[in-house]
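Re-run requested by the PI after the first attempt was lost when the workstation crashed. Everything re-entered from the original request form. Ligand of interest: magnesium ion.
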Amino acid sequence: MAYLIFLGPPGAGKGTYAQRVHEILHIPHVSTGDIFRDIAKKEDELSKRIREIMERGELVPDELVNEVVKRRLSEKDCENGFILDGYPRTVNQAIFLDEYLSTVGKRLTAAILFDVPEDVVVQRLTSRRVCPKCGRIYNLVSLPPQRDELCDDCGVKLIQRDDDKEETVRHRYRVYLEKTKPVIDYYSKNNVLHVVDGTIGIENVVSKVLEIVRRGKNDTCEE
Ligand code: AP5
Ligand code: MG
């Protein structure tokens, strides 16, 4: 059992590490970004509003995000653990999550911050590609697909995210500093924060995460 939060700026690698940790620990990867990108594909009013917010690199309103996350975490596959990627992103969301977890008798194992500077973020996101079918994340520089720009698993042509233009990436980074940095202080005060250097290789980062999870589980057992 591991209840994990992955924190960090856009492009820190949250989704990449979550996909790997999901394969290893078999706990669901819950990405609010992926959930909202799915909703944004539809044509109703709410979907259109979300699409516009995401394209600008702003945050979706807390109330809506909290409701979506609560619904997802209530599903059976999240009973014995989850990896929250991209949530919480505001202190309001963090408080909501704490209240939700305490009502269902669960406790966070760790909130892990992947520390990456802005210039690395911009470089990574302008060369990121994703599979529109399975969501697998690639990078033309650091993690290229085996052939052309096709997904290794699906053979589908990879795409660039609408919010990965340099200008939008820099705006998303500013939103992160303003709205999400306080969430880091919040988890630090609650003694669940772990900081991992996100500029080392992907597999090295994943090893550090697994070590934190092992230690977190031991801490829980000793109590
Ligand atoms: P979201 O999808 O969560 O985007 P984000 O937080 O900006 O993060 P990214 O997905 O861009 O980056 P990542 O950290 O996952 O990095 P990745 O693994 O892809 O949110 C999108 C939008 O949805 C928000 O702007 C907002 O509008 C809305 N939203 C979502 N959640 C919300 C919430 N809670 N509240 C309100 N609104 C919300 O890696 C990036 C690249 O780097 C890849 O190419 C990868 O291959 C490469 N890479 C990764 N690690 C390494 C490494 N160690 N070395 C070299 N390359 C690496
Ligand atoms: Mg992501």
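Saved to the shared folder this time. Residues 166-189 form the longest helix (24 residues).
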